[in-house]
Amino acid sequence: MSDAFELGSPPHRIAVDAGQVRRLVADQFPQWAELPVRPVADGGWDNWTFHLGRDMSVRLPSAAEYALAVEKEHRWLPALAPRLPLPVSVPLGRGEPGAGYPFSWSVYPWLDGETASADRIADPVRFALDLAGFLAALRSVDPAGGPRPGTHNWFRGGGLRTFDRLVQDVLTEPAGRIDTDLARKVWQRALDAPWDGVRTWFHGDVAEGNLLVRDGKLAAVIDFGTCGVGDPACDLAIAWTLLTADGRQAFRERLSVDEASWARGRGWALWKALVSPDGTRVLDEIVADYGCIS
Fold first, then answer.
1. Which residues in 182-211 are b (16+ Cβ under 10 Å) and which e?
2. What is the CA radius of gyration of the chain?
3. Sorting pLDDT into bands at 50, 70 and 90, what band is 178?
4. Which CATH class for the 4-110 domain?
5. Has this prediction a pTM greater than 0.85?
6. 115-293 has which CATH code?
7. What would the mean pLDDT of 141-149 be, rounded to a whole number?
8. Where does the chain hold its CATH 3.30.200.20 domain(s)?
9. Contact in structure between 225 and 73 (CB atoms under 8 Å)
């Protein structure tokens, strides 16, 4: 689930059911009209996701704000995919509003795998290195013409000051989940950490739900709705939200992350943890890691 809705007032999400998806597919992609449609368990927040037959999926934005990513994904994923070392979902077709559904939507190939979690990763260091290799390849793609941070990706790739008021508000709440003094130091260091201004591609939401594992190994990276071109430090948050201490170190070394970028990445992880109702473990990981170097 994305954290995007935490930026301000929650987007107005609409419901979509399987019957509606069948009508959309039959009307706009008659070659697939006979394929069964069923909801995907834990299909995410930004999009409603449905199986289409055995080998495809249908993703329909759940709100107007999330629909901004559809055109971007159709434009850029075909260009990015051949340059990346792991499978990513390249759209097979773009649907238009219809059957009572108001936004553009997409048909994708179905990528096999389970969403990542600590207990599904066979070798945490190998996983971290594979993920870092994927992000290094993504960063190496020519950024010319790529989408800059904005409302289409909830300002991923931009400055952390966009989220400062939210973080400060959370940190003024009664203590309990975290050492707020130390958290403020983590956040301030992130805000103060300079960026050299070199824009690269970033995924924008490198999180457990967007990393697929198969046989304990990283198998695919999905959901590029928040991707763009800018400061890639947002992609470093996974170092604290999923990786082990050893994996985190291997991840950093593989990406050759300097101290300023690491501090900004830690800030992204802190923001994510603060706005997540189940972020206590991540908060503990962040402040413990920071306490070792401060």
1. bbeebbebbbebebeeebbbbbbbbbebbb
2. 19
3. confident
4. alpha beta
5. yes
6. 3.90.1200.10
7. 98
8. 4-110
9. yes
